[in-house]
Amino acid sequence: MQIVIIGNSIGAISAIKEIRKWDWQSSITVISKEVLDQETPYYSPVVLPYYIEGVLSKENLFSIRYEFYKSMNVDLKLGEKVIAVSPDEKIVVTERNRYRYDKLLIASGASPRILDIPGARNKGVYVLRTYEDAEKIKSDESKEVVIIGAGPVGIESAIALLKSKKKITIIEVAPYILSTVFSRTISEMIESQLAEKGIEILKNEEPIEIKGNPVKSVKTNKRNIKCSSVIMGVGVVPNTDFVKEVLNLGPREGIIVNEKMQTSEPDIYACGDCIELRSAVDDSMRPFPVWPNAQETGKVAGANIVGQEMIYDGGIRVNALNVFEKVYFSIGNVYDESKLGKVIERDDGVMELYYFDNRRLIGAELAGDVKNAGILKYLIRKRIQIDLDRFKGLDELAHFTAPLVVPHKAHESIHL
User: How far apart are alpha carbons 374 and 401 in whole angstroms?
Assistant: First the structure.
């Protein structure tokens, strides 16, 4: 069997490992559009801010070497952009070659969304998604930087640039920062830490133009902000243009997959940031562009590609953020504060917030400690009923262990 994987993300890596757990006979070809050194072909985008900050070396950034691919008998094709897929012919077409497949895995990831405003592509405007992006930001000597978007990319970029003694201004259209990741309560705690370090945060403010080429300022609906570089962190868009005519896509342009990561074409699978799948919290179909989802869905796809039936119990948004030595963690639905059912403030300063739909856990936030947080994902996925009066938070959960992905027909139960 010939297996082709589009993309060289953590989803692809997880799939390769799972495939080789069961099958050493099939060939595996990985096609990646990024032009990287063949000896150091893999890095994780989630740690790029640490590379910019200087706390992570280039050697440690590229965490998987070519030896991995060689040991897994993978034919790695770097610098080839896929432009089309033909399910009828079972062919992947790149700008230079054509590859036949029996089974195809699309792990093409997502690209940064660019605001549709004047000047958005001017010199000095950056995004942060690839190693090349990080090198551009790292080498820019601007002393005044505007960051558009106060999501994880924007906040982590701001923290990374502080060491360079830059004046940093963050523009956020929402009423509080990190509104897609944390509740207002936790976001305000983080905002306070950022403000103490001199980062200016402008909320309820919309950028309408980036002036100058190269950049000289950003105009918002309220003011003009002088700067010589801009970092845009306003979400991502799935990389699915090359399959939009042949696969079913969701309303956010992600590839629709089932619980086995199978697409509308039975021999084509997809995983990671390019997909839309069922939410474990509310059963809606949506993207989950976070690292744990990519790793887990890649594993599930790899198993099913080689006939080892495995299901994914649904996507859950999981985020962790380090802010000046303090760690924050969120999982599931933490946006509806009317669902906040339990707040625990521990003697060691750690705060735990739990969100419920009736007695079913649908989300949680932790500030200061994330040990044993993995069990929260299991509880949300399994829709466990919890007695709120007796529930004591992570201290009570510490003795439980649970898999992130369960084999087909496995049934676990837990009673709290």
Answer: 8
Q: How would you label 326-364 residue by residue, b for 16+ Cβ within 10 Å and e otherwise?
A: eebbbbbbbbeeebbbbeeeeeeebbbbbbbeeeebbbb
* Cα–Cα distance measured from residue 275 to residue 193, given in angstroms and rounded to the nearest whole number: 34
9-68 tens-digit pLDDT: 999 999 999 999 999 999 999 999 999 999 999 999 999 999 999 999 999 999 999 999
SS3 string, the chain, reads CEEEEECCCHHHHHHHHHHHHHCCCCEEEEEECCCCCCCCCECCHHHHHHHHHCCCCHHHHCCECHHHHHHCCEEEEECCCEEEEECCCCEEEECCCEEECCEEEECCCEEECCCCCCCCCCCCEECCCCHHHHHHHHHCCCCEEEEECCCHHHHHHHHHHHHHCCEEEEECCCCCCCCCCCCHHHHHHHHHHHHHCCCEEECCCCEEEEECCCCCEEEECCCEEECCEEEECCCEEECCHHHCCCCCECCCCCEECCCCCECCCCCEEECHHHEEEEECCCCCEECCCCHHHHHHHHHHHHHHHCCCCEECCCECCEEEEEECCEEEEEEECCCCHHHEEEEEECCCCCEEEEEEECCEEEEEEEECCCCCCHHHHHHHHCCCECCCCCCCCHHHHCCCCCCCCEECCCCCCCCC
- What pLDDT is recorded for position 393? 85
Q: What is the spatial distance between Cα 177 and Cα 247, in angstroms, rounded to a whole number?
A: 35
Reported as a single tens digit per residue, the pLDDT across 239-286 is 999 999 999 999 999 999 999 999 999 999 999 999 999 999 999 999
Q: Residue 286: what residue type?
A: R
Residue 394's pLDDT band, with cuts at 50, 70 and 90, is: confident
- The side-by-side arrangement of strands in the sheet containing 207-211 is 207-211, 217-220, 224-226
* Chain segment 331-376, per-residue pLDDT in tens: 999 989 899 999 999 888 899 999 999 899 999 999 998 877 888 9
Q: For residue 61, what are its two tokens?
A: 């950034």
CA atoms of 358 and 336, how far apart (whole Å): 13
Alpha-carbon span 181 to 275, nearest angstrom: 19
In the predicted model, is pLDDT for residue 231 greater than 90?
A: yes
